[in-house]
Write a structure and sequence with these properties.
Layout (H helix, E strand, L loop, with lengths): L1 E10 L2 E11 L4 E5 L6 H8 L12 E4 L2 E2 L5 H11 E5 L10 H11 L4 H14 L15 H13 L5 E5 L7 H18 L2 E5 L3 H6 L2 E6 L2 E2 L2
Parallel strand pairs: 3-8, 3-9, 6-7, 7-8
Antiparallel strand pairs: 1-2, 1-4, 4-5, 9-10
The structure holds adenosine-5'-diphosphate.
Length: about 220
């Protein structure tokens, strides 16, 4: 699913990623842990094509066999919207839109019709136990519900790859636990691949593979 070779990233004099090599298989759940400042979010942003690695002849990033470095901005945005879902610590839902409208947005960007997008969004919201919350705005939902809406939004275009950055960092332990179970259920039912940056030890340990980052690379 992902083949990353020699990923470097520097901000001015600060080298944040130091030659990362990583292969992630389809339907694998990989957790990334490590101290704050180790470079976890930076790596996730690069693997998720939201940011670019430093140019280097040894660097390569293949996602679903596509060499994403060769795509122009427009093609990359399309690739991302079709194949990749993101879940962040702070759900980043639009406050003025309802749950249903928030979930539909990535489908609208893909030019899916309103009827089809809403049908699919309702299916996801039902699956996530939010049938009674279609028309609520984010501030009328609990933290756990908001995060599940964000998960539905991440899933609407049926991405094969999902990146989560501290997805349960802002949730109480019960909501966190049910969100974690959900990731594994999705993987088991739909074969999705997850890369999750987390400080939550239980979630990190549940993963098929736990990678520890220290100072810009993986600890062996
Ligand atoms: P982690 O997710 O492991 O806490 P980050 O990837 O967020 O680590 O950050 C790694 C290092 O890169 C930190 O020292 C951070 O300050 C620095 N950094 C991250 N993004 C930027 C940026 N846009 N500009 C400058 N420095 C950055």
């Amino acid at each position: 699913m992902i083949q990353a070779k020699h990923i470097n990233k520097s901000y001015n004099d600060l080298q944040v990623l130091k030659g990362i090599d990583l292969t992630i298989n389809t339907a694998e759940v990989v957790s990334i842990v490590g101290p704050s400042g180790a470079g976890k979010t930076t790596l996730l942003q690069i693997l998720g094509t939201l940011d670019k690695a430093d140019k280097n002849p040894q660097t390569q990033l293949l996602i679903k066999g596509e060499n994403v470095a060769l795509l122009n901005d427009k093609a990359l945005a399309k690739f991302r919207n079709n194949h990749i879902g993101f879940i962040f610590q702070f759900h980043q839902l639009f406050p003025e839109f309802t749950a249903l409208e928030n979930v539909c947005i990535p489908a609208f960007i893909k030019n899916t019709s309103k009827t089809q997008a809403e049908t699919e969004a309702k299916k996801l919201l039902d699956y996530l136990g939010l049938s009674h919350r279609y028309h609520h705005k984010p501030n009328e939902l609990s933290g756990g519900e908001q995060q599940r809406v964000a998960v539905a939004r991440a899933l609407i275009n049926n991405p094969s790859l999902i990146f989560a950055d501290e997805p349960s960092g802002n949730l109480d332990s019960e909501s966190a636990e049910s969100l974690h179970q959900l990731f594994f259920k999705l993987r088991d039912e739909f074969g999705q691949t997850f890369v999750i940056v987390t400080h939550n030890k239980a979630l990190a340990d549940m993963a098929d593979r736990k990678l520890t980052m220290v100072d810009g690379n993986f600890q062996i």
